[in-house]
Every structure is written in C-alpha cells, then in structure tokens.
Amino acid sequence: MPDYKITYEDGTTGIIVANEETARTVAGNGSYELVPVPQDSAEEKAEIDRLLARIWRDNELKNTDKYVSVTDHPDHAKIMDLRVRLRNWPSTDDFPDTKPTIGS
Known about the structure:
The protein has 3 helices and 3 strands; from the N terminus they run ββαβαα. By secondary structure, it is of the alpha+beta class.
C-alpha cells in the first residue's frame, strides 16, 4: 500500500500519510491531489537497514570508548568483548537483524 503526498491546488505540498482515507481527512475540503509516493524496493530497504545498523554500531562503539582505559571497571571484560562483537557484527550472518549486547 503506497503512502500519499497531499498537493494542494496552489502548488504547496502537505504531509505524507499512510492511506487515502487519512489523506482526505487531513486535506480537508479544499482542492487537492493525492500523489502516491514511490515505495523503496526490498533491496533499497535492506540497504537502509544495513546503514542504520552500522550507525547504531558506531554509536555503541563510541559510547564504550571511555571504558577501554578503565581496566578496573567491574564490567571491563564484558565491555571489551562487546566491542569485539560490535566490530565483527557486519560480517556475521546476524547482521543487521540481531544486535550484539553485553552478555549476549
């Protein structure tokens, strides 16, 4: 089912909504056109998922940087193990579906 972009008679573009019924409710009584928004292909969605997973992974690594030199932290070994699994994650069969976490 496509999303719809509401385009008004004066050329302004409204919001994108999930279905025609919602679009008609949001657009009101004025003159408008509902334009279906092209959907991403499965391949494009998979590439977006991989990109978002890498961004998440990079942020997790950045958030744990501060623990690398704190060798007396009670969870230092777990954090270091997590960092290894985060770095290796993109090359695993679980990528991007199952995110590494401490203790997983």
